[in-house]
């Protein structure tokens, strides 16, 4: 059962084992347990534990109640793979125009394995101080982008429960934001501890599905939370133009009461 890795052959074995562990994840399998990995790889639990903890230290996995889930580095790599999608290729000029017009950082995010992932950003040229977000960063339950994906998804309530449970925030607060987003078509999220504010709207593809979210991120002092502010108007207009560029021909409207139930 021992899996001693030393030298080139050992290094290759380690890569193979890590790949096998990552291959156990799927849309249905969001977390793996030590005993299941040991059985799948036919290895001792002590050896598997070393693999799992090393992968968690590297960011490929993260410890959760159910065992181990995909970590931030895995999400970042997934985001880089998603850069081949149409919306990421097309969105660059739209983000640049939005950022310069609104004077805030603009963000494009797509839905990753379990949460939104940042795939492209733009920062305003004429503002020396602004908030930066790295490509590959995953967004939590309180993010405006999470509310948009949940509001326009098949089961916003289930998404709210999953996001809130994972991040340790109040599920009702997440549900309330999703409901408001479904009614208005725009999400607003304030992070009081850091003084930041995000506003986000959906981007639709030719089939009318949400391909991504586009958002503005600023401080509570520079980015208004009002849904009819100049920045919110710019954001909505940019999302509508980007949606049309993706082939969407419908009207950009609120999700309706079913989206945030």
From TrEMBL:
- Domain of life, per UniProt, equals Bacteria
Residues forming the IclR-ED domain are 73-248
Which intervals hold domain HTH iclR-type? 12-72
Query: What residue ranges are annotated as transmembrane?
Result: none
Xref: Gene3D superfamilies: 3.30.450.40, Winged helix-like DNA-binding domain superfamily/Winged helix DNA-binding domain
- Is Magnesium among this UniProt entry's keywords? no
Q: Which UniProt keywords apply?
A: DNA-binding, Transcription, Transcription regulation
Protein name from the UniProt record: Helix-turn-helix domain-containing protein
Query: What organism does this protein naturally occur in?
Result: Microbacterium elymi
